[in-house]
Amino acid sequence: MAHANGGGPYHTEFTHSATREFPEPNDGITVHSSQAGFHDPLGSPGSQPHRNLLGSPGSPLPNDPFYPPRSHVTADHDSAYSSVYTGNPSFHHGNVDSTAHLGYTTDKHGGPTPPHIPMVDLKGHDGGPLSPPHQTGPPPRGFQRVFARRRPWVVYAFTLAQIIALIIEIVTNKQLTGSAIQTDPFNYMIGPSVTTLIRNGARFVPCMRPGSYSSQPAPCPDSGGIYTANSTCTWEDLCGFNGFSDDGTPNQGFRFVLPIFLHAGVVHLLFNLLSQLSYGAQLEREIGWWRFGCIYILSGIGGLVLGSILSPPLFASVGASGALMGLFACQLLEILFHWHLIHSPALELFKFIIAIGLTFVLGLLPGIDNFAHIGGFIAGLFAGLIFLSNLPFDKYTKTIRVVSWVISVAVIITLFTAGLVTFYNGTDPEDICSWCKNLTCAAIFDSCKAMYK
Hints:
Distance between the termini: 85 Å
Largest sheet: 2 strands, antiparallel
GO molecular function: serine-type endopeptidase activity
CATH superfamily of the domain at 153-452: Rhomboid-like
Radius of gyration: 31 Å
Strand content: under 5%
CATH architecture of the domain at 153-452: Up-down Bundle
Protein name: Rhomboid-type serine protease
Shape: globular
Strand order of the largest sheet: 1-2
Organism: Tieghemiomyces parasiticus
Number of helices: 11
Mean pLDDT: 75
Number of strands: 4
Function: Serine protease involved in intramembrane proteolysis.
Subcellular location: Membrane
C-alpha cells in the first residue's frame, strides 16, 4: 500500500514492483509492470499525479494534459508555516526563497504546505549557524531564535555534576559536624559550613598560594568555620585533597575550576539552575555543545580569577554565577547584533540592564562574590565574540569577523595571563584597588566592616 498527499490524495495497491519511465517532451508515458493487471492512475482522464519526482511538489509533468495548470489555481492559501520574514532577503542570507533547496517553493499551489519544514544547519551539524525559523503571525517579543534538533547535553551534564557535588558537600558536612547543614550560625542557603566548602574545593586563597596568613592558625575542618585561639589545625589540614606540595607550599590551582560545580546550599543551586536550564539550554541548542562549554568554563574561570585577586584572601567562594554571567553577556551580544530582527529591541535591552543591575546590587550583600559576577561577565563578552556562531557576519563582513575574533582571543589570553601572574605574585588586594572591596561586600554592613579590619 502506498499512500501520499500531494495535489490530491489517492492510493494504489500492487503486489509486485513497478517502474515508471519519464519520457522526453512530446513522447507518450510508458509504464512497465511485472503484473498485467497493474493500473496506471495517469492513464485515465481526470487523474492527477500525487507526486512529481522531477521537480517541486505540485509542478506539472511535461505535457501532462490532466494536471490543472497553475493559472487555474485561485485559492489564496495562507500556510500555517508562513513567516513574517519570508520576503526579507537579509533574514535568508540574501535568498528570499529560503526553502527552495528543501524541495518547496514560495509560490502558492492551492494545496496544503508540508506539515513540517526542517531546520537547516547552514554549516552542517557541527553547531554552526542555523537558518531562521518559520513562524505564524507577528514575531514574539524578544529573540527570534532557531533551535537545532539537539539536546543540551552539556547543560544536563553540568547540572548533574552540580547536584552530585552538593550531595557530597552535605554528606561531608554530616561527617565533620554531625549535621547535614550548618545551623550555628544558620546557613540561609540551606547548605554546609564554610570549612566544608573549603574542604570540598572552594576558591580559597590560602589553599592556592602562600601569604602572610600562612603563619596564622587555621580553623579545623570540624569547627564549622570558627577560629579558636588554641586551634592546632594547619591550612593543609583544612584544604584537604592530600595536602600541598612536598615542601608544604599551597598549590591547589584546580580551585580556579572546581568551584564552578560547588554551591553554598540548596537555595543557591536552585537559583543558578533556573537560569542554566532555561537560557543556558537554549543557548547550547543554538550554538552547539562545544562552543557553549567553552563559553561556560571560560566565564566561570574568569570570575574566579578576578575574585581571587580583589577579594579578601580569607574569603571562600563557590558557585556557577560567574559562568552564568558569561552566558548573560552572550545575551547582550545577541541583542546588539540582532537589533533589527528583535521585536522592541530597546525594551529588551532595558530589561536586560535592569536584570543585570539587580544581580550586581545583590552582589553587594555579605556572602556573595560580586567579583565572580563581574569577571564572568567580562570573560563572557570576549568568549562570546570568539565562539558565538549565530552572530550575523556574512561574506561581506568576513574581515570584521576575523578581526574581532583575533582581538577577542588576544584580550582573553592577556586578561587570564595578567590575572594569574598578579595572583601568584601575592599582590595585596588593597594595593591593587583599595576601594574595590566595596563592590563585593559593601561597608554599610557590619559583617563587611569586620572583614576589612
